[in-house]
Amino acid sequence: MSEVTFAKTFLATLDKRPIKLPADHVSDPRKYPGQSPFVLPRQTHPFPRKGPTSSGQQAKNKTVTATLKPMRGGETITVSDLTLQSTIHDVKTQYAQKSGQAQDKIKLLLNKKPAADLKTLSELGIDGETVELTVMLMGGAGGAATPNAASPAVEKSEAIATGAAAAAAPVAADKMDIDPKNPAPESEKAKVEAASKPAADANTAESILKSEEFWSDLQGFLSQRLRDEGEGQKLAKVFKEAYGKK
């Protein structure tokens, strides 16, 4: 291959490659031919329109009646005014209001399988007008309870309050006999205060100056400061004699 042929082939290969433009390149609009504006296609239904309800919506809005039967025997309760969009939590709420049981202790079963609280009736595969659910009470809750029956916690608190009132009545009726000749013993607080008074007196300036510990500390300080033990002892003795003549 001659050099001219190689050069032509190389230049032809370079022409086929895309041209890399710099970041600050600005195209000249006069070099481009005029183009018609591009119009976006119009949407078929840009906004939802209210129309006649479909069969699917009517099926979702139809009323469903749930029959709740306790697992260990008890009164069967019927919950109505439900829809396919009602959740298991809604069913539990109405059952708790009618039965008097605690809502957090209630567990609903559908076909012997636990039903989650956030699941709707339609998500559980219910499409009829009636559904039968089984009620399982968790935590040893009672089987059947009437809505007007008081809860055990309320009864227990009332019993405690009654017993406390009965126990306090004789104490309030009997007055304490006080002997003026024999006063009551001092409290522990008074004893502590009495014991701390001598210690407080011992921390006064006069008591500190009378102690030998102070003069020995003063002698050690003077000896260390003057770097002469003899001079420190003489000065401490002078200070002590001057204080004694005071």
TrEMBL record:
Domain named Ubiquitin-like: residues: 64-141
Biased composition range(s): Basic and acidic residues: 22-31, 174-194
Region annotated Disordered, chain positions: 22-60, 171-204
Domain of life: Eukaryota
Pfam families listed in its UniProt record: Get5_C, Get5_N
Protein's name in the database: Ubiquitin-like domain-containing protein
Organism: Recurvomyces mirabilis
